[in-house]
Amino acid sequence: MKSRIFTSAGNGIWLIESAMTPEDLQQQRRTYKVIVNDSSLFDSQWDSLEFEKIYVKYIRLTLTRTTGGNFVRLNEWELYQYVSLAYLKLEPTVINMKPAWQNKIRKVWRASEFDTILIDNSLVKWSCSDTSIAFVDSTGTIFGVAVLTLSKHYRKDVYYIWVLGISSGYQLMEGKIDLPPFSVVKVDFNIKWNFSIYNLEFIIPKDQYPEAEKENNSVSLYSYSLSAGFYVEESLYNYFREYQFQLNSGNNCWEDWVNSTLRILNFKFYDPSVDSSGPLMYEQYRIDKIVIVPDGSLPLDGNNSVTTPNFNDKSVDLIRGFPDSLIQTNMYNNHFSPYYTNPFYFDQAFFNDLLKARYLVDPVGFSVSDNGFGDIVNIKENGKYIGGTKFLPWESGKKVHKFQNSGLLFGDDENISIDEYSWNALSLIAGQRATLGNYNPPGNSGEYLNDLPQNNIVTILDTSGNPLTGANVRVFRSTGNQGVMYGKYYDSIPDMEFTCDEFGRVNLGTCPFDEFAAIFYKMNNANVVILIRVQQGDKAGYRFLDITEFNRHYWSGYKDTAFYDLTFNLFPVITSVNEEKNTSDDIIQIRYNSLNSSATAVIHLNQPSQINLALYTSEGRTVGEINESITIPGIHEISLVRLNLSTGLYFCRLNYDANYFIRKFFVY
C-alpha cells in the first residue's frame, strides 16, 4: 500500500495510525498500529511513503506544524493500494475517489472543516453501473476492467502461436494457455541458444473471443538484440490508455505504442535504404522492462526533458524515461492522425534519444546558418559580410552550409529514414552496448568524430575541374557561440594558411578543426566545420568542409592518407579578407607549405624599414626573433625555418617604424 499527502502554509510532520475499533485507535492499544511515523512534510510539495498491506477498519492522519503558525492546511491526502482499476461509485460522498489506469484505486480525503474524519470501512460501498468497466463479487472484492482490454473473465485454452523467422527461416510453434483475469502468464519458447538473430512473434489469433481491439494481439521479440527499459510516469501512462485507441492504428495503451515504435525502428534497421561505406550494420531492439513510476519522480533537465531515469539500472542496454510533463507540451494532443510526424503515433524524439543512447550525435550540428551581419561568419569581401552573398549564398533558413539531412531522422508523413552518416557510425558498435552508459548521452557520445586520417590532402579545383596551382588557401576554424546549441563563430583571422603545389594540392594535416586536435560537439561549441578561402590572382571563393567527410574516408579504410577534391566558385575581390586596406593582411602574411613543412613570412612594405619578427606560442612563450633591414620597398619573403618550429599554434608579431601587426598560423 501507499499513501501520499500535499499540504501548504508551512513545513511539518505527518503521522498515520490504524486500528480495528475507535477505542483501540484512541487509546493506542490491542489492534493499534503506527503506519507512518513522523515523516517530514515540506510546504507545497507531495510526500509519499509505501508500507505493507494491512487490513484495518479505522485510520487516522495527524499533521503537526513545525514552522510558522499553529495551524495546518491539508490540501490532499491519498491512500491507495494496488488492486484492479475500477470506475466506481463510492459512498459516503465525503470520500472522493480518483480513477486511474494503473491497476490501482485511490481513496482521497480533501480539506474539510472537521479536524478529524472517522470512516468505517464497513460503511464504504462500491458499485458500478457498467460491469464491463468494473464489478464487485459476493465477497465485496472489487475487480476493475480497463477499457479495451481482452476480457475480465477467466479464459481457458486460449490458442497461441510462435512465429520464428529472419536468419533461421520460418518455423512455427503453437499451444494453448489459460488466462486468468488480471494476471501474468508465462509462455516459453524452447530453442537452443546461438548468436543468430531470430525474430520471435508471439500471437494470439483474432476472433477467439470478442475484443474491442484486435490488432494488438502480437508482440515481436528479437533473440539476439539490445534490450530496452522504460520508466513512465503514471499520468502519461494513463493518458495513452485513455486516448491511444482513437488513432485506429491497432494500439490502445502505452505498451502498444512503444511496441509499435520499436517495430518501426527495427524495420528501418533491417531495410535502411542507405549506402553504407562501412561494415553492414544489423541491430535490433526489444522491450525488456516497463516501470510505471509516480508523477514527478523522474529527474528533468532545464528543458523539462528526462535526463536519466535510473543511473543504477544496468539490467538493460538502453534506458529512457517518459515524464508526465510531456502531456503539458501538447505534443501528444493529436489523437487522430497516424503519421510519422505525429508523436502520439510515432515519436521521433523518442527515436532520436534511443540512437543518442547508442552514442550517436545529431547531425544537425554539422550545418551552419548565418544572418549576414557577422554574428557567425565575421569575414568580409568587397566591404560586405560574406553570409548571404555570392561567396556564401543562403539556402533555406539562411543556411550557408547544409548537411545532407536535417538530423538523425528525415522524411515526411508517410515514411522516415535514418541518415547514411549516422547509419555508418552506428555500424561501428552494432550489437554492442555503448561502453560508458545506457542512457542519452553516454560518456562516449560521438567518439567516432575522432576517426580522422593522418593526412588529409585536398585538391583545389575551379568549376571547370582545373587545379588551382599556386593558389592561396586559408582555413578558418570555428570557435564557440555562448548560449547556442552546437554554437559556431568564425573570425576574420585565418588559423592555417597554405600555397597549392603544382597539382593544386594542400595537406590539411590530421585535424584542421582544432589546434590541439580536440573535437567538441555540444551546447555552445561544435568545432566540426571549417571554412576554407581560396584566392588565385584577383579572384577568391569560399566553401565549408565538415568532419563527416574525414570520418567517411577513415571508415572506408583510408586511415593513413585520404584525398578530397574541393571545387570553388571564384569571384573578383577588391580587398583582402578584411574590409580595410593596409591591415595586417596587406602588410604580412604567413605561408605554410604542408608538403615540406616550411613556413615563410611574406612582408609588403611601401618604404625601407628596419623590421623585427617575433614568434610566440599560443601560451605566450617567445620562440625566437628575426631582425632584418629592408632597403627596397615591395614584397619580401623571410624563411622561418631557422626557428625550428614544432607542431602547434603560433603568433607572429611584425614591428617596424612604431607599427606592429600580428598574424597567427599553425604548424603540423
Written overview of the protein:
This protein has 668 residues and is mainly beta. The strands form 14 sheets. A five-stranded antiparallel sheet has the order 4-1-6-9-8, with no helix packed on it. It has a five-stranded antiparallel sheet with strand order 28-27-32-33-35. The chain has eight helices and 42 strands. Helix content is 10%, strand content 36%. It has five domains: 2-135, Lipoxygenase-1, CATH 2.60.60; 147-224, no CATH class; 230-364 and 403-434, no CATH class; 368-394 and 451-572, Immunoglobulin-like, CATH 2.60.40; 595-667, Immunoglobulin-like (Sandwich).
Topology:
Blueprint: E1 2-8, E2 12-19, H1 22-27, E3 33-41, E4 46-50, E5 58-65, E6 73-81, E7 89-91, E8 96-98, E9 105-110, E10 125-127, E11 134-136, E12 142-144, E13 155-166, E14 171-179, E15 198-203, E16 218-222, E17 226-233, H2 234-243, H3 254-270, E18 285-293, E19 318-322, H4 325-328, H5 348-357, E20 368-369, E21 380-381, E22 384-385, E23 399-401, E24 409-411, E25 416-418, H6 420-427, E26 455-461, E27 472-476, E28 496-499, E29 505-507, E30 521-522, E31 525-526, E32 529-536, E33 539-546, H7 547-555, E34 561-567, E35 571-572, H8 584-587, E36 588-593, E37 598-605, E38 609-617, E39 622-630, E40 634-639, E41 648-656, E42 659-667
Parallel strand pairs: 17-18, 17-19, 26-34
Antiparallel strand pairs: 1-4, 1-6, 2-3, 2-5, 6-9, 7-10, 8-9, 11-12, 13-14, 13-15, 15-16, 20-23, 21-22, 24-25, 26-29, 27-28, 27-32, 30-31, 32-33, 33-35, 36-37, 37-40, 38-39, 38-41, 41-42
